Structures are given as structure tokens and as C-alpha cells.
Amino acid sequence: MTMLPASKTDKNLDNAILELLERHTVEDIVYCLYGYADVQAELAKILNETRAAAKWEHQAEALHIACEILDEADDEEFDFLMY
Fold it and tell me: pTM, whole model, 2 decimals?
């Protein structure tokens, strides 16, 4: 099986992601990224960094949607993908 690279430009990022996936679930990683983006958005607001706040809010919202989708997904629905 050939694995597609996670990043088009950064081999170090590819390796870091693969190492994370060996120790954590995708769900855990996405939830962590959501929390990080949310905190960064709040910090940017406190510092009156409007553009940075908007960027982090956009990323946090996208990650929040991903979290909701992962929460809704039933593991049994994906059993057929494993075989």
C-alpha cells in the first residue's frame, strides 16, 4: 500500500504526523488542534490582533465542525473499511 504524503512541502511534518498517529487517535489530535486554535483566537482578540483572530477563529470553527462529525460517526459504520 502506498501512503500519500500528508504535506506537499514538508517531509518533517509528514514524519511528525505519522509519529502522532502511532500514539494517538485522529479524534484526539483533531480535538487537541481545536482547543489550540480556540485559545489562539482568544489570545489574538485580547491583543487586538484582528486579522490573526479572524484567521484562528476560522480554523477553530473548521476544527469544531470536524469534531462534531467525528462525534457523530459510529465506529460500526466504518468496520467495512477495515476488511
Answer: 0.73
